[in-house]
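Recall the central idea of this unit: under ordinary conditions, the amino acid sequence of a chain determines the structure it adopts. In this exercise we apply that idea directly, starting from the sequence alone.
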Amino acid sequence: MAQQQPAKDHWTQEAYSTSASFVPELATTIVQWLDPQPGDVILDIGCGDGLLTAKLKESGASVTGVDASANLILAAKKAYSSVAGLSFHIHDCRYLDRWINLQEGAYTKVFSNAALHWILRDPSTRAPVLQNVYTSLRRGGTFAFEMGGAGNVAEVHTALMAAVTHQGISIERTRELCPWFFPSEVMMKQMLEDVGFAVEKTELEYRPTRLSTHEQGGIEGWVRLMGAQFLEALDSESKKETAIKEVCELLKTVITHEEGGGMFLGYVRLRVLARKPA
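Accordingly, the structure predicted from this sequence is:
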């Protein structure tokens, strides 16, 4: 769930729960695709604060969560340290092969929810990430994941880019700052097949998602948390606050539903179930 950028950990359990609590709540479909069973050994890549990881453990499986955010892993350990068969580790998931606990064929299933669009941002590490997942699975093992797909949160993505360029960052640099990778079904399927996976099913769903109504959440909370990499390029707090205000004001009428007053972002979810041949 958390961005795999080790330079600065802007993720906190409080910010995540107030601005993005809907993320694990809306993971029902991909958990069904994973189909965790007693006896499974599951790796959760980009596990965040561990809430969904702990739910996977309720199936009777043994589950390991990995995330680059020390803040979120600390929160996960604090909340679930007493649960047997559930463990959490700090590691940059772009480099799973450097993780001392990763062994060939160690897992029956690998899972990821709302994290791979961060982890796969760098084109140079995409194939290695998928190859490491493939290697970690037992023969016949499955890889089930959900991530942002092509067109995900396009309105706020565009608004963030505009607001940052209005504060003096070049458009070329702004494009480089984007922390996300939102592939199509076709592209993702090809990437998986290239490392040996058999892709069993994919789904691309347009799912407008209501933002948190917490006073620290809403569109402002989302922009501060999810758009932090854009904002960190600005050289003063005043510029950051101006950019945040511009995004919020620009999107206010676009994302607000008049009938209920709620704010919705245009999430596009890409779900995939792939298998390592037996």
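The radius of gyration is 18 Å.
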